[in-house]
Fold these 4 entries.
Entry 1:
Amino acid sequence: MKFEGKTCGVCNKGTLKAFKDEIAEGVYVDGYKDEYGHVAYSKEVMAMVEKIYRNTAEERSLVRVGSSVAVPIPASIVRLLALKPKEKVYVTTQDNRIIIRPSPF
C-alpha cells in the first residue's frame, strides 16, 4: 500500500511523503513521513522491522513513573556501559529514534 499524499494517521493533519528510512545499519526500507515527523510503514515493512528488532534488541515495556514513563535498561547493557543507579543520562530524539547517552563525567 502506498501512503504518498495521504493524511497522517497519528495527527490527522500532516501529508505523508515517501523517504528511505535506515531501520538498522545498512538496512533501508520505504517509509512515509509527514511535516510533523510522524512516520508510517506498510504492514510488510513493519513485519520486517519487528523481525529485525527481535533479533537484534531486547524488548522492554514502558512503565509509569509519576507522570512520566520509563524503560528498564537490560542488565547486559548496564554492565557493558558500567552504569550505576541514579547516574545521569541524556535523552534526545533523532530521526524518530530515542537516544539515551550516559553522562561523560
Entry 2:
Amino acid sequence: MVDVRRVTLPGVGVLHTFITGDGGKCGVITHRSGLSDLISFADADDGSDASKVSLRLNEDEAHTLAELLGGTRITEGIEGLDQIPGLSIDWFSVDYDDHIAGHELGNLASRGVVGLTVVAVVRGGSANPAPADDFKVFPGDTLVVAGSPEKVAKAFAFYRTGEIARVTTAVDSPPGG
C-alpha cells in the first residue's frame, strides 16, 4: 500500500504526495477552483528544478487521467465479480430503435424480472450509479446490469422490444425452490 501524505494549502487547496518505488515524488494539488496540478519531482540535494515536472489539468482532464490510471483496478474488480457462479454483469448500449430509448428505466420487478439490478447508466463519459426507476434513458447511454444470466437476457429483451420473454424453466424461483 502506498503511503499518501495530505497537506492543506491555505487559500489554494490540498496537496497529496507519495514517494514512488524509485525514490521520486508524485503529487496532485487540487485547487479550490476545480483545477488540479499533477507534479513529479526528485529530491535533488542541490535544490535544482531540473528534475521537476508540473502539468495543469482542468476538471475533465483530471477525471480522465484518474479513470485511465484507475481503470485497470476497476476492470480487474469487475472481472473478479464475473467469476461468481450465477452472476452476470453485462452492458446494454441503447440505440435509437430500442424500446427503452426515451423512456424511464422503470421497475422490472413489477414486470416479473426479480433479482436484477441496474448498477449504473453511463452517459457521455460519466456514470450515474444506482439510477432510480424514473431515470430517463437516451440513445447512446450504456446500462450496466447485474443478475443471473437468464434475468439479464430477459431485461435486455425488454429494453429492445418492450416485451418480457417467458422462460419455461424455474429461473424466476428462489434458489432451492
Entry 3:
Amino acid sequence: MTWVDFGIFLNLFFNGYILFSKQLPFEFYITYIPIIVLLFFFIAKYRFPKELLLILIPLLITGLLNILLDNNTVGNFFKIFVNVAVNIIFYRYVMEYYDFDVSKIFKMYMQGSYIVALLGLIQVASFVLHIEPGYNWREFLPLNKWNFHVGGLLGIRLNSTFTEPSYFGSSIAPAFFISVYELIFKKDLFLNRTKQLVIVIAYLLTFSSLAYMGIFITILLFALNFGAVRYFLIAIPVVIVLYNAAYSNVKDFKVRIDGMKALFVDGIIEKELSGDLSKGARMYRVSKVLTKIHGSSFVLYNNMHVAVKNFKQNPLFGSGLGSHELAFEKYNLNYMLGGIYDFNAPDANSMFLRILSELGIMGVLFVFIFISKFYVSKNLSMEEDEKYWLMSNAILVIIFTQLLRQGNYTYNGFILFAWLYYFNKLQYNEYVGKQREELERTEAGRDHETEIAIQN
C-alpha cells in the first residue's frame, strides 16, 4: 500500500481526532487533510467529470431557492453542499485513479476492515486483561473525540478506531457480509479464513443495535439471493431466533428495543406528556417516561417527528441541504423532556429522515431509483458473476444501515461506497453482455456445424 492509498482509505476507518472543535462552523477531521491534498493532485491529473453536474446543479438550485424562501441559511446550506460536492468529486476521481477497478478497491477496503477489526479485538482483550493502554486510547494517544464504551457481555463494547460502536457497525457492515459468506461457503475471494473470523467476531463484540441490524439485513439479503421465497421463509425464523437471543442477552440492545416500542408503538410521549399539565405533574410524568425509553430511541423518534413535519411543509424538494438543523429548532419535542436529549439536530440520526426533510420527494425518489437500478442480484445460472453480486449486496448493507441510523452524508467515506455500487453494476452489465455475445457465437458455430453435417 502506498501513501496515496493510505490517504484515500484513512477517512473510511478513522474518525477519532478532530482539528476544529464543535464551536467552530464544522468539525474538521484530520483525515480531511489527505483528501484536500489528493483532490488538488487529481484535479491536475484528470479532467472534471461533467456528468457530476447532473447531481450537483439540482442540489445547488433547490438549495438557493430555499435560502430565498427563508427555509435555510447561506451558512447552513453551503457548509453541507461544499462537503457533499467535495466528497462526490473526490471519490469519483478515486475511481478513476484505480482505473475503475471495483474489485481492487473493494479488496483494499476489506484489508482495512480486517486491520481495524484486529485492533478492536486487541482493545477488548486489553480491557478483559486490565491493560489500560490497550483499550483506553484517548488517555494514552492524542485522540480528542475517541473514547471506549462500557457495556455488552464483557464490560466493553468494541469500537476500535471509530468514535462509537455504531460507526464500526455501519462502516464494517460490507466486510461482515462478505466474511460471513466466505466462511459459510469456504471461499477466500477477498480474505483468508483467519481474517474473516476476526471481522465477524469483532462485529459481534460491538454489542451495537446498528451492527445487529446489519446482521439481520445480511441474512435477509442472503435469503433473497439464494432462492427468494424458499430461503426467505427460512431466514425469517433465523432472524427471529437471533433477535430473541440478542434481546435476552445484550442489555444495550434490549433497552433500545424497549425504548423504540414505547415511543413508536405505545405512543408514550403523546399518552403521558401531551395536554396541559402542572409543573409538578409534568415533572412526575417525565420521570416516569424516562424509565421506559432510551436516549438514542428518543433521538430517532424526535428526528422522525421533525422530518415529517418539515416534509409536509416542503414536500417536493425539501428545505435544502443543511436545513434539518433549522427545522429541528421549529418542530422538536425536546421541551417535553426538559431538553435533555438535544442530539443529532444537524443529521437527523437517519439518512432517510434527513433526505426526506432536506430534499423531499426529489431526494427520496433518487435514492429509491439509485438502489433499484444499480442493484446486482445473484444469477443462479452464472457462477462467474459471484464477485459482482457479493459486492453489490455487501454495499447495500451499509446503504441500508446509513439510511436507518446514520444521517451524515459523507461520514467515513460513504460516498465511495455509492460510487462502487454504481460502477459495479455498469461493469456487471458489460460482463453479462460479453457472456451473451460469447454464447451467441458458440450457438451460431454449432448451428453452422450442424448445417454442414446435414449437407454432407
Entry 4:
Amino acid sequence: MNFQDEMKQIFLRVAAGEVEPEEWEAWWNSNRLRLEESLNRGDQGRMMPALWDANYYWMAKTQSGVAYYFHAQGRPVKISSYYEEKMQEEEMRERQKAMEGYHRNTASARQRWEVYLEEHPASPVIFDWKSLMGTPARQEPAKDFPYKHARTTEQWKECGEELKLRLKENLQAKIAPVAKAYGMKKAGPKTFVREKNGLVSRIQFIGYFRGGGYEAVICYLCPIYAIQYGILGLPGHICQGENFQRMQKDWGVIQYGMEAVDAAMVERINRKFDDILIFLADGVLPEWQRIHSLEAYFARERQDYLKVTETGPKNPKTGRPMWDLGTGEKKDPWRADDYLLGVWDLLNAREAEGYARLEKCVKHNTDYMKEHLKEFPDACNDPRDAMAVMYRNAQLFLETKEVPETEKRRDKLQETYEEVCRFMRYYHGLAKKTERD
C-alpha cells in the first residue's frame, strides 16, 4: 500500500471515530514530512492545528478537518459522533475537577459561614419540588401549525399568543408552587415577593420588549430599605454556576415568538422551565431561606464567604473563569454599597461610619441627580428609576445628622427608617402604590 492509500485509510478511520488521540498523534508525527508533501497548508492546519493536544476536543477538530478534506475532493463522508461525545465526557470531568478545587479553596470561609448558621439556625423548607418537573399538569395539547417560521403579522401574533400560553402554564405549574412553599406571594402575573425580618426577596420574569416571551429572570435578596444593586447576595457557584449556565443555554426558546409552538417546541419550553425550577429550588431559594435576618445578611462570615466565591475556577475549555462577579479596581458606579452599609451602620449606632458612607453616596450622585430630576421631577417615586430612589433615601438618612441631641437624632433615624421602608415596600412590589414628598 502506497502512502496516499495509507493516508486516506486512516482519514476514513478518523471520520468513523476509530482512531484514538494518541494513535493519531503518533501516526502524524512519524509521517510529518510525507504529509507536508501530500496536503496543502490549509488541510494540515485543519487536521493538526498548532495547539493540538492528545485529547478528544482536538480530535474532534481533526475529524472536522478530515471531513473538509474529503468534501473538497467531492467525496463527502459520514462523520461519527464518537469524538464529540467523548469530548463532552472529558469536559465534564475537567469541569468537575475544577469545581472540586474551587470548593477546596473556599472551604475555610464556607465553614465559618456554616458555623454561624448553626449558631443562628433558620427553619428549612421541606418541599418536593422535583415532582413539579416534566409536563405541567393539565397542559393543553399542542397545536398543529402549517408553517415552521412566522412570516406574516398574523403568524407572529399566533405564535406569540401560543408561546405566552405555554409560559403561563409552566409558570403556574412549576414556579408558583415552589415560590409559595418559600412564603412568597404574587406581586403580578410574573413576579413573586416575600418580606421577612427586614429582608425582601423577589423573583421576576422580564417580558421581552418585542412582545415575545421572557427576556430574563431577575432574583435578588436585600434589606427592605435597599435597592437590588450592590454587594453580592449569593455565592458565585449558586448564582452563576452550573445550574445557572444550564438555565441560560437555549433561553431563546422562551424568549422569541417567531417559530411555530408545535409539540416539539412545547416540549423544549417544558424542559427550559425544568432548568429554571432547578436553578431556583436547588440553590437560590434554600440559600435565601438560611439568610433569615438582617444580622445574618450583614454577618462578617457571610460577606467573607461571598468575597471568596466571586470568581469561579477556570473553564477547562476556554481557560477563563467560569464566572467573575468581582469589580476589580472599578468603583461601584452608583455607590449603592455605601448606601446599603451606611444605613446598616446607623441602625447599629455606628454613626461616624454610617454618615461618612452616606455622604459619599450622596456626593457622588448629586450632580447627575440634579440634572436628572429637572427632566424627571417624580423620579424618586418611580420604582423603575432605582438610582433616583436610592439617592432620595440616602438624602433622607443623611438629613438626620443635623439633629443635635443624640436621643432625638436616633428617634428621627428610626422614624426615617420606617418611612423609607414604607415606600420601599411599594418599590419591591410588597404593597400598593405609595407616594412621598
